[in-house]
Amino acid sequence: MTTVNSPNQKPFVYTQKTLERAERSLICSPFHLSLFTAMQTQSVSLGAIATERGFQKGYTKRPLSELACDNALVWLIDVGILRREVDGQGITDGFRLTPLGNQLVEKFLDTSWPSASLGDRVNDAITRWLRIPF
What's the mean pLDDT in 75-79? Predict the structure, then answer.
C-alpha cells in the first residue's frame, strides 16, 4: 500500500488495485497531463475543458462535446481522481484533484505520460460499462 501526505497531516492509504485502476483510468481518459497539473492549484470549469477551448488550451486530446467531457470527468470522480468544486451555494461546474489524483499527477511529472495499451483501454471500458464495484 502507498501512503499519501495531505495538508491535514492524515495519510491516505490506497491499495495497489486502487492505484492501478486510477492510473489506468487517467491514462485512458481523453485529457492531457496539463489539465491535471492545472487542477493541482485551481478549480477548472467544464467550460474551460470542453469543446475547442479545451483542445486549444492543451487540456484534451481532441475537441469534446460538453456531454462527453462531463461523462469522462464524472468517471474520474467515480474512480477517485477528481472531485467537484463546492462553494457556499453548492456544487459548481469546477473540478479539482483529490489526494489520489495529486499522487498520480506527481508521479507523472517525474516520468513521461504513458500511452494506454489496448488491454488498458479494454479493461477500462469494461469497468466503466459494467461499473464493477471496486
Answer: 93
